[in-house]
Amino acid sequence: MPNKNLSDFEKYILFEKGTEPPFSGEYNDFFENGIYVCKNCGNELYCSDSKFRGHCGWPSFDGQINNNVRQIPDKDGIRIEIVCAKCEAHLGHVFYGEGFTNKNVRHCVNSVSLLFLSQNENK
């Protein structure tokens, strides 16, 4: 269920499985210390130490917090979609075998799907 405070664009990305234009997102080249939570429900999704430069146009992470991100087959039958495990909001897609990090996984996430909380806000 969409949060009533979301903009129409945020609802499009999160609940109609849209994609923001590459290199346009607020968190694409953002590398502060903290955590990223679901824009819809606030579920903790990614720590900043799992973020890396994927050079793909969207924030890239090679790990998630606990089991807070769920993977499901994408409707295109090729990719793997990632959603918030709590509210099922669309985050993006996950890719394996690209070799960007030692974990060999890239969560490619729409900035619009995320809200960043700085390390100071988490204390």
Automatic annotation (TrEMBL):
Keyword Oxidoreductase assigned: yes
GO biological process: protein repair; response to oxidative stress
Cofactor(s) for this UniProt protein: Zn(2+)
Keyword Transferase among UniProt keywords: no
UniProt-recorded Gene Ontology molecular function terms: metal ion binding; peptide-methionine (R)-S-oxide reductase activity
Matches recorded under Gene3D superfamilies: Peptide methionine sulfoxide reductase
Keyword tags: Metal-binding, Oxidoreductase, Zinc
Catalysed transformations (reactions): L-methionyl-[protein] + [thioredoxin]-disulfide + H2O = L-methionyl-(R)-S-oxide-[protein] + [thioredoxin]-dithiol
Entry EC no(s): 1.8.4.12
Taxonomic superkingdom: Bacteria
Record's protein name: peptide-methionine (R)-S-oxide reductase
Source organism per UniProt: Helicobacter didelphidarum
